[in-house]
Amino acid sequence: MRLVSVDEVRAAAERIRGVAVRTPLLACPWAERPERTLWLKPENLQPIGAFKVRGAWNALAVLPESERAAGVVAFSSGNHAQAVAYAARAGGVPAVIVIDDTAPALKIAATKELGAEVVLAPPAERAAVARALAAERGATLIPPYDHPNVIAGQGTAGLEIAEDRPDVASVLVPISGGGLASGIAVAVKALCPKAAVFGVEPELAADTRDSFKAGELVRWPSEDRVRTSADGLRAEPSELTFAHLTALLDDVLTVSEAEIRSTVGELAARSRIVAEPSGAVAPAAYLHRTDVLPPGPCVAVVSGGNIDPALFVDILRERTHS
Amino acid sequence: MRLVSVDEVRAAAERIRGVAVRTPLLACPWAERPERTLWLKPENLQPIGAFKVRGAWNALAVLPESERAAGVVAFSSGNHAQAVAYAARAGGVPAVIVIDDTAPALKIAATKELGAEVVLAPPAERAAVARALAAERGATLIPPYDHPNVIAGQGTAGLEIAEDRPDVASVLVPISGGGLASGIAVAVKALCPKAAVFGVEPELAADTRDSFKAGELVRWPSEDRVRTSADGLRAEPSELTFAHLTALLDDVLTVSEAEIRSTVGELAARSRIVAEPSGAVAPAAYLHRTDVLPPGPCVAVVSGGNIDPALFVDILRERTHS
């Protein structure tokens, strides 16, 4: 299977300039260890609160004018939906978004606010519903991860990491469908070949860890994957993203629900950023899986910040009282 | 009185590269109005959670080796203390920090964690205590705002605003001692002469608004200035910073305590950043003082994120329940 090249990621970087935020790396004096330093890549600062705007914009930007006019359709566990809605509005393209009926109300409301038509569907059916809508309207389906243009767009975050910290020793990236981890691994392995790249999953949705060990896609039932609080990490890799992950990742690490929760609190109190549970898994791995990380600068990607407000309050209260 | 020049700000920008974060401007789709867009300059993302690291590092970096060895002393309502401690540690310089005995425990603990010696003093006496300590030890006093090198360092944030948004129509900056507003106004007025630059204060510490109207420094008693929840904005300008403000600012705006609180909540929920009350006054002015702002892109500086955790939880709970 043909993997995305670093040149495709570079082309994507040209396209997204001025639409996606060029996020800085944030030093974390509070998480320094004698042998290792933590740098956050805060993708929660993107306009819709997640890295997804990179891939969505890249996929939309390459569409010919005639296809744009017919509109786009997307399905998503949440952040991709907002990203396609944002990119479509920026490009003046009509958008229909199919969202899980289990997604937080905040994500659904935010997608509507961006001018998109929203259709709710059960997680297991959303892909089929989206395909049917696209066929019916002659619109283009923008998949959340299973497309080279989406992977190349997400990979621009990896280009920026290599540019800002060419001495990076390890990069930690959350895995759900695997688009972000695939794209970042393409860029980092091409530009910083000595750096280790680790995928990170919640223990409760560790299908990719199992697949990586088995050398082939191992499927977890969706009722298992929905148990994690990291609602952005409940999807599973496609053949395309899994081909990238097996070729490029050094390993897949997992973190517990308690580690995810406490890291959301640490990031708010010590790095002054709001991360959603999915966005906290990579820094959680830095804090709790130190045995496998090489010494030197470690970059952890904070993939998003669209946390349910009540959950965020709960986590901060626990931290204040402990 | 000689004002800091844009060339001094440019020289400071060279010095702080790699120490201070090059913060991006963050688009806020949630705060778009037909005639105006909001861009946040998130200085809460600096290593110590506030813009102060810019000025502190610039002031330290210019010291000759012999003076560095004798150490530095600083006094501060909080964030400047941490900034000097951070810069001193980075430069291997001993630091003594005099902090208000009314400052949040978080700020005091964070300063000690950075390796500095901490001395507590009542707000009205901290300057005198710091001067006495400096004299006693032969150390250099790094003032929080009353120095050209500190003003030039803070001004680097203004250079970055002009670089990222040369079409900026207005810039909103909090005022306490006035170092940040002075430095940013120097850079913005030099590079974007059409842009309006507004200082912003809490209504409960609006001494600079009164001074600006009167054309001379009007002093508020410190017992009045400490009433605001914006504990970083309780200081007052010096002759030097006031000279910059009168020469360069278009006006000084004020915001209420309720507006500050609700804006802290908005910034967390909609822009996924943790702002302290002092850091929220500029975006609060964008949201609530629209009558005086010119149309076009508005940049609001979020000066810091070191909020008391219990206060942050209170504000988020209010927002969730309303």
TrEMBL record, chains A, B:
Signal peptide: none annotated. Its cofactor is pyridoxal 5'-phosphate. SUPFAM superfamilies: Tryptophan synthase beta subunit-like PLP-dependent enzymes. The lineage of its organism: Bacteria, Bacillati, Actinomycetota, Actinomycetes, Pseudonocardiales. InterPro entries: Ser/Thr_Dehydratase, TrpB-like_PALP, TrpB-like_PALP_sf. Pfam families: PALP. Keywords: Lyase, Pyridoxal phosphate. The keyword Lyase applies. Residues 21-304 form the Tryptophan synthase beta chain-like PALP domain. It comes from Pseudonocardia eucalypti. This is Threonine/serine dehydratase. It comes from the Bacteria. Transmembrane segments: none annotated.
